[in-house]
Amino acid sequence: MKAIEITKPGVMQVVEREMPRLGKDDVLLKIKYVGFCGSDLSTFLGKNPMVQYPRIPGHEISAVIEAVGENVPADFQVGLGATVVPYTNCGHCTSCRKKRFNACRYNQTLGVQRDGAMTEYLAVPWQKILVDVALTDVQLALVEPLTVGFHAIDNAQVTDLDTVVVFGCGMIGSGAIVRAHLRGATVIAVDIDDSKLETAKKLGATHLINSKVQNLHEELEKLTHGNGPSVVIEAAGNPITYRAAIEEVAFAGKVVCIGYAAAEIAFPTKLWVQKEMEIMGSRNANPTDFEAVIKYLKNAGLDETLLISNIVSVDEAAGAMQKWSEDPGKILKILVRF
Question: Superkingdom, according to UniProt (predicted)?
Answer without folding.
Answer: Bacteria
